[in-house]
Amino acid sequence: MRLFVEYFSTLVHLLGLLMLAGGHLWLALSAGKAERSRFDYGQRFLIEFLPTLSTLFGVGILLLFFSGLAKLLLWYEPGFIFLPLPYGWILLSKLILYVAIVVNGILIERWHLSRLMKLGLPEGSDPVGIELTHTWGAVQRQARLNFVLIMIVVALGETLRFAKM
Amino acid sequence: MHWRLPRLRKSGAMIVLWLTVTVPVWAHHGGLGIEGDIVEWSLKVDQWQQEALTNGHRVKFLAYPRNAIAHRTTRLVFEVQSVATGRYVGGLTAEVIIRTPQGDEHVLAASETAGVTAYYEVPFAFPATGEHAITFRAHANGQELSAFFIQHASANPLFGDWTTMIGNGAILAAFMVTWIGAVLALQRRLLSVVD
User: Fold this and answer.
1) Distance (Å) from the C-alpha of residue A133 to the closest C-alpha of chain B?
2) How far is residue A156's CA from residue A159's CA, in Å, rounded to a whole number?
């Protein structure tokens, strides 16, 4: 049973990572490509696709949190995160960054995504308005920040493999 | 304007070269907190919590779980090593004396763990909260080895020492933001469906 929980939570953690980190990587690359393009089709597609992407990120976050928690409960000791060992400090840094990522995600969804949905995409060949472009720029900035934070968390996660408990 | 570009490139290259040469000196003077490679640093750590030197022997101690909870069994593990030769000393008849904060004493025999040389272990449920004095006593080559350790026992797993508090706080914070984020995301989706 213990082995199954360990294996299953690792699998779910990787799946969550694929959705969150992979999704952010795809968004960053696609946004960069759309920015360089002479046409605004890419930009339009990404803005239209953002709510679906946001749901994907949300599901990824939930998978990461619950699989991580399952592992901590599996190897439980009071305080959960094995402080004051180096393992515990790395895990604490990971958790602090995780909180920052989720808070940033909440801000993106509450402020910018709602704004984008309210503004809506212009019909047909009408150019994308200044306000929409401005909000889309803000989404990209904050999403890139989240991407950087996620990559740091991934690096810390890899470091945990080498930290003795 | 064009004549400035090569000069700018040249000064840029000079700055990069200067940084490459001087950065190790800056790193050496601190700011990072961790010296050397983080992976190497992590590997150096072992799990022993306390150690004492007695009559040419090093006695190491750990409690498992590390943060002991009163009235719950905690494994008290000791390891004995000769300082001069570095050899682990097995086959000793050891005893552990535990003095509670109230002054009561418990004397227990610490048997050597089967298959692990020089590991002596005793399970114990701390009867009270607070700092307990633990004395490991044994005889090796006609000399008495007596090592003294302190182990804190908490009332419950939620409010132990600072490490327990920080750990629980971090997990609680992560849970709270996840919960708030999920609720807000659901609210936005459900409200947009209603609208």
Assistant:
1) 22
2) 5
